[in-house]
Design a protein that fits this description.
By secondary structure, the protein is mainly alpha-helical. Helices cover 61% and strands 0% of the residues. The N terminus is likely disordered.
């Protein structure tokens, strides 16, 4: 089954992952290949202003998406983009200020977090180019120091913005539910159990994380 899936034209990394974990083949056939596989940023790219602007915008998006459905979060993202005249940049956020962000519908907590990251980037206290030289753990620690950011936020940034390939989110409810569904477990593994479970997917844990989310979108899992 896994070998047949290797003829579908996916990247060598996804092929490598599915060869080792053939239980994910039906999930790939359902969801395709994740975009972040080819989104890793090189040191040269991280030094470029357009890429840094993209990474800043992605950090604000992470804040906005916290505890909101995708559709609702997209509405707030669109409002912020419009308020920034089409470019979500630190200076634009600072100029909008707390009253302006609150008028867009952002909560007090999200407003504080968005302003906080804008000020850190604007002052040079947070350097995306420097982040590119750090390990996943170092980046998680640095991102989590900012107000409004925690492990989940750091994982999302590592995965979708920096394209890091070994991101495992053991506390994510969707990952835990997807794991239980994929492996036909009666109960979700605990967060503690998920920490050790992630070791089996190294060094491509990001693929497991993403595909376990997609498992929840599947109407049913095929019989083994």
């Amino acid at each position: 089954m896994a070998q047949a899936a290797l003829d579908l034209g996916r990247s060598s990394l996804v092929a490598q992952f599915v060869t080792k974990h053939p239980e994910f083949v039906p999930v790939y056939e359902f969801a395709g290949e994740p975009g972040f596989v080819s989104s890793a940023k090189s040191a040269v790219e991280l030094a470029q202003a357009p890429v840094q602007a993209e990474l800043f915008a992605s950090l604000t998006a992470v804040i906005i998406h916290q505890q909101l459905s995708g559709k609702v979060a997209q509405v707030f993202e669109a409002r912020l983009l419009d308020a920034c005249n089409g470019r979500v940049e630190p200076q634009a956020i600072i100029e909008i200020g707390e009253p302006g962000l609150r008028k867009l519908g952002l909560s007090a907590s999200k407003t504080r977090a968005v302003l906080g990251v804008a000020e850190e980037v604007f002052k040079g206290e947070l350097s995306f180019e420097s982040l590119g030289q750090m390990s996943d753990e170092e980046i998680s620690v640095r991102i989590s120091k900012m107000y409004g950011f925690g492990p989940w936020s750091a994982h999302m940034f590592l995965l979708f913005s920096l394209g890091r390939l070994n991101v495992w989110a053991p506390a994510d409810l969707g990952v835990r539910k997807g794991f239980a569904k994929l492996y036909a477990l009666e109960e979700m593994p605990s967060i503690r159990e998920m920490h050790s479970i992630g070791e089996r997917y190294t060094p491509l844990a990001s693929l497991a994380t993403w595909y376990l989310w997609r498992v929840l979108e599947m109407p049913e899992m095929p019989l083994a």
